[in-house]
Specification:
By secondary structure, the protein is α+β, with helices and mostly antiparallel strands. It contains 4 helices and 12 strands; from the N terminus they run H-E-E-H-E-H-E-E-E-E-E-E-H-E-E-E.
Amino acid sequence: MPRIRIRAIVIMASALFGFSTACSANRYRTYYIPSESMAPTLAVNDRIVTDRAIYHTTSPQRRDIVLFRPTDRLLEMMQGANIHSDTPFVKRVIGLPGDTIEIKQGTVYVNNQPLQETYIAAPPDYAWGPETLPSDAFFVLGDNRNNAFDSHFWGYVPRDRLIGKAFMRYWPPNRFGSLEPETAN
């Protein structure tokens, strides 16, 4: 094989590798967990990987762990806490557009059906709703329900505020693994 052909193949392979690396770098991003709002699923100092492109082609599903930019209401409520419009928050999707959500007697109800939740720290000790979500919004809660600043305080997350889906924890090594949601109701 002539040297020019080998050189062209090497240059093409390098360009393709660089392009795929750039796409991956843009699609996947790592984040640090600074609070206990998602305990026991995510602990302070956990590091997670988020797919920032997934919701361009699919819709968020109930139980997905999502990162989002704060809403105006959330920013207003956190005034003075050094939170900016690009500060990512992480919570679990509980309500999808059009769902009716109610929280009562330690149980979350979605469309009048109790949600089975094995991932929470403790049942919620508050009441909320019932409210029906707008067509472009999601209701998100922390897994540490009684110690999470989430939708039951400040409202819904519009779809255009979603950053991506957290799908893996890579640190600490003893907690490495998937963050895929359970499949029960």
